[in-house]
């Protein structure tokens, strides 16, 4: 059994949705397909419900009509069979009427609670899966649409609810597992290889469709897992049902060796470890959120990132590091608009006593600290740019300390267990970083990356050269 999750861009219009269905159709495994809302719809829903709460703003009937029209257009463009157009129109109308009622309630109260926000946002996924189910039917598939709110149970932290794992697992097995004819042993593990499930349940379907992102609390109120939460839904269901693979379909080929907007010859990385994904997203690379795939990795279920629009690409596999793939540099991230803050201490001052103060300052202002190092006479912070730092610099420039602030770009080269990487790759990296003294202001290592603070005017050139030397040889 596999999980296939299609993100917002994979269901954004008729052509994309048809691509997605083609992919679903090609697989001959039992599958649970999770969908996001059509691209842009969640934003629209959240903004219209906010407007509904504001008595100064016009009541958002137009936005609701537009959402209804968007989905109706989608179905009339997709379906050849008039019956499906009519079925989906009726359901779209029902959902949009519910949305209108919700907006009217919010207008009356002049207040939009997180609970109402989640209810509003949920219509995006409810609408996209409604259409998708009919499209599957029209493509001779036999899908069963299951409301994710019946399966994924959370606490009542609306807008970023936490999953109740035990409850959810039980529901996944009892509801989805049953429909798919999966058999589980007492310890809840799916006996995937036994073949018993297939023989016992010939009448069951092999295709479940459900929503990503949405769930419900113990009193059945709609909750959501936070923006971009459908990857998390995929991992939760994959883990609960012991899927053999979780496939995340998106609009890029997978995880790349760098941002193609900065580095022309960025390459697809075929395999990446969980630790590396964590590191890459900490430094701002836009890949799946590691927290969202954690449930899968705990059960050692491989997660594959695939491109809906490029069948030929093999995608990127996220799994535990294997020795064949270790000790290789995987990617470069160039994080622009960072700052290097150096505080130099005179012999009278003890630098260590200041550390806590700095962290409190950054925490209060939500300044992300990428790296910090300290010695007796100097503390260095590599941070994201923030206007308040100038105030800190002024404060720290007194007789005992001297603070200096530099605008830099943060260049990160990632590899699992970096110190085991090849000497010649390190040589190439250092050659580029240190070619001109004024290029590079700081170099440091973490377990999985080499960090450097590079002058912004050189950073793209240096990043491209390092990429050439270690990824394009
Ligand atoms: N539709 C939701 C969002 O836009 C969830 C997702 O796409 O993952 O945040
Ligand atoms: Mg997403």
How would you characterize the overall build of this protein?
This protein has 473 residues and is α/β, with parallel strands linked by helices. It is 41% helix and 21% strand. It has 15 helices and 16 strands. The chain has helices at 14-26, 41-53, 61-78, 82-109, 114-138, 148-151, 165-180, 196-200, 230-240, 274-282, 290-298, 355-364, 389-396, 423-433, 456-471, and strands at 2-6, 31-35, 143-145, 207-211, 214-216, 222-224, 245-250, 271-273, 303-307, 316-319, 329-345, 369-374, 378-384, 401-415, 440-445, 449-454. Strands 3-4-2-1-7-9-10-8 form an 8-stranded mixed sheet, with helices on both faces. It has a 6-stranded antiparallel sheet with strand order 12-13-11-14-16-15. A two-stranded antiparallel ribbon has the order 5-6. The longest helix is centred in the first third of the chain and has 28 residues, at 82-109. It is globular, with a radius of gyration of 26 Å. Bound molecules: aspartic acid (ASP) and magnesium ion.
Question: In summary, what is this structure?
Answer:
The chain is α/β, with parallel strands linked by helices and 473 residues long.
Poorly predicted segments: 191-202
- What is the annotated CATH architecture of the largest domain? 3-Layer(aba) Sandwich
The count of helical stretches stands at: 15
Classified in CATH, the superfamily of the largest domain is Acetylglutamate kinase-like
Q: What is the percentage of strand-forming residues?
A: 15-25%
Count of extended strands: 16
The CATH topology assignment of the largest domain is Carbamate kinase
State the name of the first-level CATH class of the largest domain: Alpha Beta
Termini separation = 39 Å
Strand order, main sheet: write it out: 3-4-2-1-7-9-10-8
Helical/strand content category? alpha/beta
How does the overall form come out from the CA principal axes? globular
């Amino acid at each position: 059994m596999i999980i296939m999750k299609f993100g917002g861009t994979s269901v954004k219009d008729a052509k994309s949705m048809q691509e997605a269905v083609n992919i679903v159709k090609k697989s001959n495994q039992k599958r649970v397909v999770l969908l996001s809302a059509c691209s842009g719809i969640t934003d629209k829903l959240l903004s219209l419900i906010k407007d509904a709460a504001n008595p100064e703003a016009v009541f958002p009937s137009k936005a609701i009509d537009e959402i209804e029209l968007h989905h109706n257009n989608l179905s009339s463009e997709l379906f050849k069979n008039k019956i499906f157009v009519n079925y989906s129109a009726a359901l779209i109308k029902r959902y949009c009427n519910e949305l209108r009622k919700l907006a009217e309630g919010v207008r009356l109260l002049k207040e939009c609670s997180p609970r109402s926000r989640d209810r509003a946002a949920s219509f995006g996924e409810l609408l996209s899966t409604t259409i998708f189910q009919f499209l599957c039917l029209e493509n001779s598939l036999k899908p069963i649409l299951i409301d994710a709110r019946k399966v994924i149970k959370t606490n009542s932290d609306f807008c970023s609810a936490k999953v109740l794992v035990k409850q959810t697992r039980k529901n996944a097995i009892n509801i989805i597992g049953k429909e798919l004819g999966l058999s589980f042993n007492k310890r809840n593990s799916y006996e995937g290889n036994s073949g018993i499930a297939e023989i016992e349940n010939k009448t069951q379907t092999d295709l479940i469709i459900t929503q990503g992102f949405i769930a419900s609390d113990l009193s059945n109120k709609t909750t959501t897992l936070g923006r971009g939460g459908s990857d998390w839904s995929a991992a939760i269901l994959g883990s609960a049902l012991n899927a053999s693979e979780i496939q995340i379909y998106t609009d890029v080929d997978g995880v790349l060796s760098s941002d193609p907007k900065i580095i022309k010859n960025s390459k697809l990385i075929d395999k990446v470890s969980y630790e590396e994904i964590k590191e890459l997203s900490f430094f701002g690379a836009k890949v799946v959120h590691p927290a969202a795939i954690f449930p899968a990795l705990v059960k050692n279920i491989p997660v594959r990132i695939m491109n809906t629009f490029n069948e030929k690409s093999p995608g990127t596999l996220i799994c535990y590091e294997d020795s064949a793939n270790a000790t290789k540099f995987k990617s470069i991230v160039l994080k622009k608009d960072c700052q290097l803050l150096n505080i130099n201490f005179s012999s009278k001052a003890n630098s260590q006593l200041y550390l806590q103060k700095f962290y409190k300052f950054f925490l209060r202002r939500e300044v992300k600290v990428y790296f910090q190092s300290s010695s007796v006479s100097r503390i260095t912070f590599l941070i994201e740019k923030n206007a308040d730092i100038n105030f800190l610099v002024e404060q720290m420039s007194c007789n005992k300390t001297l603070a200096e602030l530099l605008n830099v770009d943060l260049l990160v080269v990632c590899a699992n267990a970096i110190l085991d990487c090849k000497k010649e790759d390190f040589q190439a990296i250092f050659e580029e970083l240190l070619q001109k003294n004024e290029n590079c202001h700081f170099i440091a290592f973490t377990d999985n990356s080499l960090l450097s603070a590079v002058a912004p005017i050189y950073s793209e050139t240096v990043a491209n050269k390092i990429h050439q030397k270690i990824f394009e040889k």
